[in-house]
Amino acid sequence: MTLSINPSFSPCSQSLAKGFVLAAPHSGSGKTTLSIGLMRALKRRGLDISPAKVGPDYIDPQFHEVASGVPSFNLDGWAMGAETLNSLGEVMARDGALCVIEGVMGLFDGAVKPGVLGHGATCEIAKFFKLPVILVVDCAGMGQSVAALVKGFAEFDKDVHIAGVILNKLGSLRHVSMMEHALEQIGMPVVGAIPRFEEMVLPSRHLGLVQATESSETDSQIDRIADHVEAHISVDRIAELARPFCIEEYYPSEGISPLGQHIAVAEDDAFRFFYPHLKRGWSEAQATLSFFSPLNDEAPNESADAIYLPGGYPELYAGRLAASDNFMKGLRTAATDGKVVYGECGGYMTLGSGLIDKDGVRHKMADLLPLETSFSKRKLHLGYRHVKGADGKVFRGHEFHYASIEKEEGEALFSDAEGQSHYGLQREKVSGSFVHLIDAA
User: Fold this and answer.
1) Model confidence over 170-207: pLDDT tens digits?
2) Residues annotated as catalytic (active site), given as ranges
């Protein structure tokens, strides 16, 4: 049976650029590595790339930025409203000639309970922007069954257009021939066949990949991945499969309001998880952003009226942070002066009284909130969160960490939508939680 691989999409209001979504049947198929390799290969051809990542992931977009040379946005169908998605889509389509969007988990995987637009699955973003999907299939341990798998994915949702397949982790030329012949029987184009390659494996940590900024070899490794991609993928053909990036008319989203008129933002390897869409939104709202490095013992700008500590890996640098007197003094002075001080996840832990590392050693933190956290008792906390502040404002966000809470006392910053659970702490103008806010609900 031959698949219908060219369904007609309904027209969109605007077509400012072209794009495609790189997805897979399941996690671990090689999406991120192939995404950054493709981005670099396309950039080598002189194309302007607008990268994006489906879902709340912070780390993959860092690699996208190194590979493409421009910031990578998160696109989240669970946490973001249509207005936010459309506004980000407009920026991507305006800034880049080719939009390359990396999916999350499996093509149809998402949260159990639906959010704003759906479950947060990759397929929802493909449908929202009316973009074709290139499916990356992990072929290790698989033969002709690849045709049944791909056929099932292609026919599962008639509004999702799978335009081609990249076969990954192949073992031999015979393996390649077997796979290509099986997919030929169902009329599915094969646009790449990638043999196993150790350089395609990027170092990982408990939250995903090790941050792109942590290695001086990241750029050269991406070049080697791009070399391998160009040798085994029809890069030009993939570019030809891209379709118009569709943006509907929208009203500007309120988003998440700036913390102040001048926001001092912590930025280094301990505090790297600042969503690009949030950074852009605050700048467009006329807020001034200044950046400082706690790991270099820098204090926040004294003229700032708000301080933001994003998430990251403070547990890896707890000793250095505890010894950063200028940084800690700057936080405490800002709190005493009545300035807004806000921390998310790693930033939240830094605002607490102490952080216990994986070896059981306690490190004194800023002591601005009655919070004690520990990594000697690891426990995964993962999932989307729908939270409401005391002022009635409702947000959607995501929680992903392994810290255990030893002590968390005082006034909660958020409650969940049903008022059953509480998140974070607030003491006057100092506040924080483990929830990474993504958008106003």
Assistant:
1) 988 899 999 999 999 999 999 999 998 766 666 654 55
2) 345
Name the CA dihedral angle for 142, 147, 149, 153, rounded to a multiple of 10 degrees. Answer: 150
CATH of 14-247, one of 1.10.1740.10, 3.30.565.10, 1.20.1050.10, 3.40.50.300: 3.40.50.300
Residue 55 Cα to chain centre, angstroms:
6
The CB density around residue 102, as the number of other CB atoms within 10 Å, is: 29
Min mean pLDDT across 83-87, 101-105, 307-311 is at 83-87
Q: To the nearest whole number, what is the mean pLDDT of the chain? A: 91
Indicate whether 79 pLDDT > 60. Answer: yes
Q: Higher pLDDT residue, 419 or 127?
A: 127
State the CB neighbour count (10 A cutoff) for residue 14.
15
Per CATH, 14-247 and 262-440 having the same topology is answered yes
CATH classification number, 262-440, choose in 3.55.50.30, 3.30.70.1730, 3.40.50.1110, 3.40.50.880: 3.40.50.880
